[in-house]
Amino acid sequence: MGQRMSTPTKYRFSFGPWNISEGADPFGPEVRKAFPHEKKFALYKPMGFDGVQFHDDDVVPGVDDLTPAQISKQAAKVKKMLDNQGLVPEFVAPRLWFAPQTVDGAYTSNSAKDRKYALERTLRCIDIAHEVGSKATVLWLAREGTYIRESKNARLAYERILETINTMLDHDKEIDVWIEPKPNEPTDMAYVPTIGHAVALAYASKEPKRVKGLIETAHALLAGLDPSDEMAFALAHDKLGSVHLNDQNGLKYDQDKNFGSANLRVAFNQVRVLEEAGFGSKGEFIGLDVKAMRTQKGSCVTSHLTGSRELFLHLVDKVRSWDQKLEKQLVDARDYEALELAVMKHLMGVK
Which of 99, 160, 202, 277 has a 20 to 30 Å separation from 349 between CA atoms? Predict the structure, then answer.
């Protein structure tokens, strides 16, 4: 059985400003008024969050059209905002799925010109991370994949992704690269769909210690995998940079539901794995990536964030109050039926 840390972890939480959204989806209009990013920063601390997740254009809007000096000036402005609020920039990720140059992929595009754009924007993103004081960048390889397998050479695509990672490591000797796998959407079949693929790329890179993974609950579920097992695999290799906790109701589109709202027992086991490994004890964040229901009214909706954080902490209490002696007895007796019932009763608060 896994052993919990002797000193309980005091967790820190993060989310990205896009989690306070206008409620649009692909099939309908926005349902809430826009709320400027600058005003969102003041909401973090009162809600119990210390870390901010960023895309490059969250920090520097219109980044493609600005000079290096203009980018640096805007990044410095955001850093000052964060400092004033006592917030930490957890990571900055290049947004490589809206630009026309990335329609057919970024690093794996068949166009050399478009691959060049993707690399240049990625290196610029690392510079932005450096400017705001973040030591990590995240690669969500959104359009790295295909709708038709014959359109790309998959072996070459993986080589190009690895080459990109190595170039990033060379560009800034302090930055860590966290790969966020996803099995599908917006591409039909993605490259690097699981944490196993991400860890393999990390070991193949020129500096494996600086390449890790970021596991999102919903992405693991969309691959038909258990997110706690994916987290455990990364932790076993010391490759879990961060997590994006949310939930998913089946093999559908990426829903980003409130953490634990669809699969409470799955959520319990994610917390259990993180707690037993001492994740967070080195300053790692518990990141949330959750969307408010588009039916929710209000000009600034945040209850999906506070609710997910609250449920995580409730589950921490459930993990810490779980009867490990009983668990060992039932495991030793191979009485898994009794173990399952004990887990469910514990989650329901039934004696």
Answer: 277
Q: Which listed residue (37, 56, 57, 58) is catalytic?
A: 58
Domain membership of residue 236 (yes or no) is yes
- Of the candidates 309, 281, 282, 289, the residue with the CA atom closest to the CA atom of residue 216: 289
Q: What residues are paired with 15 via a beta bridge? A: 52, 288
**Does residue 3 belong to any structural domain of this protein?**
no
> Could you read off the pLDDT of 54-97 as tens digits, one per residue?
999 999 999 999 999 999 999 999 999 999 999 999 999 999 99
Structural domains counted in the chain: 1
Catalytic residue among 55, 197, 244, 346: 55
- Domain holding 283, by residue range, is 12-322
- Pseudo-torsion of CA 305, 210, 195, 109, nearest 10°? 100
Residue 170 lies in a domain: yes
The CATH number given to whatever domain includes residue 198 is: 3.20.20.150
Is 55 marked active-site?
Answer: yes
Q: How confident is the prediction for the chain on average, in pLDDT?
A: 96
